[in-house]
Design a protein that fits this description.
The chain has a single domain, classed as Tetracycline Repressor, domain 2 (Orthogonal Bundle). The chain is mostly helical. It is built from 12 helices and no strands. Helix 3 runs parallel beside helix 8.
């Protein structure tokens, strides 16, 4: 069963006109408190650390990612990007031909950076890591990159349903590639008997990715710990896919039982 197209669906937190989403955009995402941005190797133009022009371009992209993640596609103005980048607005046109070109680059970088981050996290695991534990690693890598590391990822996820279709070609290609990463994870876990037989893999993948992406909408960074979100997501997904206890839970239960017998 091909995964093509599934990632796109999971990356569309739609119904942007709902009042509570407007409240989230206005109150949760404080423009004065940026998260760490990444100068990703996946960008279309290589960034030379010694080049003033390249550094300025990167600064514009970082600023655009932050503004887009906070204000959305419709609310992103070049004047806001320029102010955050500490530039004059006309200077942006030296690097990007239009507002749409700048936003398209940010959207592409967001999903490309996310895919690379998750894949690198998986590549760093020991060979003996079980398929289900590999899924848990991907869950954590996705959430931390989305919520803690990259304005690009948040911008891409939160605005996926708002961007005009003609600006989405590269983004959709990257989403399909990212979807295949998750498809392999689920296929391997299923083949290893670590996913229950009554679960439809296609729906499971869509539900997991959709839930992970939606965290960018509802999380309040002033109240919601990323550690708690990651732990809760891992527990829900692990026990939803496989009724067996995780090693941590099993160890804690045995410790409690041993203590009670003394």
């Amino acid at each position: 069963m091909a995964f093509q197209g599934l990632a796109e669906v999971a990356f569309v937190p739609a119904h942007r006109d709902r009042p509570y989403l407007s409240w989230i955009q206005n109150h949760v995402y404080d423009m004065r408190v940026p998260r760490k941005s990444v100068a990703a190797s996946t960008r279309g133009t290589a960034i030379d650390a010694d080049s003033k022009s390249a550094r300025t371009r990167a600064r514009i992209l970082d600023a655009a990612a932050h503004v887009l993640s906070a204000k959305g596609f419709a609310g992103t103005r070049l004047s806001d990007v320029a102010e955050y980048a500490e530039l004059q607005a006309p200077a942006i046109y030296y690097y990007f031909g239009s507002r749409e070109e700048l936003i398209e680059e940010v959207m592409y970088c967001g999903i490309a950076d996310l895919r690379q981050h998750v894949q690198e996290s998986l590549n760093n695991l020991p060979p003996e890591t079980s398929p289900l534990d590999r899924i848990m690693t991907a869950v954590e890598a996705h959430l931390r990159h989305e919520l803690e590391i990259s304005d690009y990822a948040t911008a891409s996820i939160r605005n996926s349903g708002q961007i005009p279709q003609h600006l989405r070609a590269r983004q959709l290609k990257e989403e399909a590639s990212y979807g295949r990463v998750w498809r392999r994870l689920f296929d391997n876990a299923k083949a290893d008997g670590q996913i229950r037989s009554d679960i439809d893999l296609r729906f499971a993948q869509l539900l997991v990715l959709g839930a992970l992406n939606w965290a960018a909408e509802w999380r309040d960074p002033r109240r919601d710990s990323v550690d708690n979100i990651v732990a809760t997501a891992q527990s829900l997904i692990r026990h939803g896919l496989n009724m067996q206890e995780s090693p941590q839970v099993r160890g804690a239960r045995k410790a409690r039982t041993s203590t009670a017998k003394r």
